[in-house]
Amino acid sequence: MSEERNHQPQNREARRSGPHFGPPRGGPHGMTMPVERAKDFKGTFKQLLRYLRPHMGALALVSLLACASTVFGIVSPRVMGHATTIIFEGFMERVQGVPGGGVDFAAIRRTVAILAALYVMSSAFGFSVQYIMAGVAQRISYDLRRQVNQKLSRLPLKFFDAHPHGEILSRVTNDVDNIAGTLQQTLTQAITSVVTFAGVLAMMLSMNLWLTLIVMLTLPASGLVTTVVAKRSQRYFKAHQRALGELNGHVEEMFTGHAVVKAFGREKESVERFVAINNELYQAGWRAQFISGLIMPMLGFISNFGYLMVSVAGGIMVARGVIPIGDVQAFIQYARHFNHPIAQLATVANVIQSTIASAERVFELLAEEEMTPDPPRSRSVPTKGRVVFEDVHFGYSPDEPLYEGLNLTVEPGQVVAIVGPTGAGKTTLVNLLMRFYEIDKGRILIDGVDIREMSRQELRSKFGMVLQDTWLFNGTIRDNIAYSRPGATEEEIVAAAKAAYADHFIRTLPDGYDTVLNEEASNLSQGQKQLLTIARAFLADPPMLILDEATSSVDTRTELQLQRAMEKLMKGRTSFVIAHRLSTIREADRILVMNEGRIVEQGRHDELLAAGGFYAELYNSQFLGSRVERVG
After folding, report:
1. Which CATH number does the domain housing residue 176 bear?
2. Is the dihedral of CA 595, 599, 602, 608 positive or negative?
3. Residues of the chain above pLDDT 70, percent
4. How many CB atoms lie within 10 A of CB 290?
5. Which of 209, 342, 552, 628 has its CA 20 to 30 A from that of 438?
6. Are 512 and 506 within 8 A, CB to CB?
7. In terms of Cα–Cα distance, which of 202, 200, 227, 221 is closest to 347?
8. CA-CA distance, 70 to 72, in Å (whole number)?
9. What is the DSSP string of 68-118?
10. Which domain range does residue 488 map to?
11. In this structure, is residue 416 part of a structural domain?
């Protein structure tokens, strides 16, 4: 079974860095921080609607229930005002000595019962809205994640080479979460805000036109305050986020490389840099929070001014008998809620922009060019291990070809070492053989069958890989070895570990094969991790091997152990060894010397040294000190 992770091509194409995509950060008091805008809002919105289409019935029901919940909530202050009027008028009749006058408690009880029913129904409908929307939002989120996960498995290796892993991860997690959160909260909030605004306005107009006009006079002032304060605070929020990112990066670098920092005595400079960034973060954060914090007191002042005007004008009207006192009380409650829907809709508009930007990034990922599909009927033949490259042309970019007519024949059971300087095309040879990349022209044959006529799973099952960068996941040692063959018995796992010279050190661990590897397997040495990957390859028992120099980062004693294990692993198998230390490939059946995408020399170790060519120069640069050059 192939082990693909961390198998990155050594080529001239530099890995591009991109922006880190993430969810919008929220400011205080409902203010959102500046968000990234979508490049194609209309097109992305239409695409997002396709995901909503299967749930249109549920969304229609949500809209109906949200309207009902809001309407019941809007009517409640009017009913409460009616109860206040009954109490006030009854009290005044008693004071004035009206015969039979007094508070009509029966009417009060009926009004309270109606009020309680309204509150219960409003809450019930509101609960139903949240319940249904939670299901819809999570179902859409589930479908998006499933599609993205399936898409990632169909993307070629060049996509992952060209995009930072953090960006891809952010699209899968943060952007999808942002879409789900918006659908669950913002959609219903938009509906209720519109209904609330329209309902409150209608109720106020039905009670008194003049008091409604007084309340509406506060609307432009509230909008002006919100716009001005938000604009002023946004630049500080930007500075705050920039400083926060810089601080996180500095802390991560310092703690990741703390041994190097200590070794060079740079602790003081590190602390001074942290203090400088932290101070910048403090200043930007303080200003952002202070300025954005002004919005609520200022809106409160405007609202209170409106309440004051309503109270004065309403009192005069009550005294003149123009309006009941209960309507004035209801009016004050409506005035308190009048500006809220406007602020909510402004927030919703900003969040929707962010959500569409997130959706655009997810849809861009789903639209990426996929690998060439596997043939409908893949050919599978018993593998002997004969590999042929016929006139292979390939380049990571069309204007920079790497291979131009590469020809190579490897016989079954041969150990072929591939050497050369950095960028020569050594790892590319393996990438093409495994179909991590597709060739531009020519053929690659395994036992006479073009690898494009096989499914990728079938092709890669013929190879075992031991890479320079080990990959072990969080789990037991037993699970990590069995990763190449899920269903392997305990005896087979132990046998593979013994063949890789790993059984001894495994049994010295407190829990033996049940030892749980922590994150990045840092509780094992580099050599121990490498032995486990070799054991994994032994367990897979593949007919062919790819070894990307597994001994370049370990000590000499461990290198000898690994060398013995790999020699045992390669016995009888067609093997491709990408060599960095030329001392490890002296016994190879053939050595391919590559430079700039061409095989410039090939032969056995002694033959190539005797020829005094490029290989001899590379070898001497390592062992005789004629050149100080690292062979990559």
Report:
1. 1.20.1560.10
2. negative
3. 83
4. 11
5. 552
6. yes
7. 227
8. 5
9. HHHHHHHHHHHHHHHHHHHHHHHHHHHHHT-TT-S--HHHHHHHHHHHHHH
10. 472-582
11. no
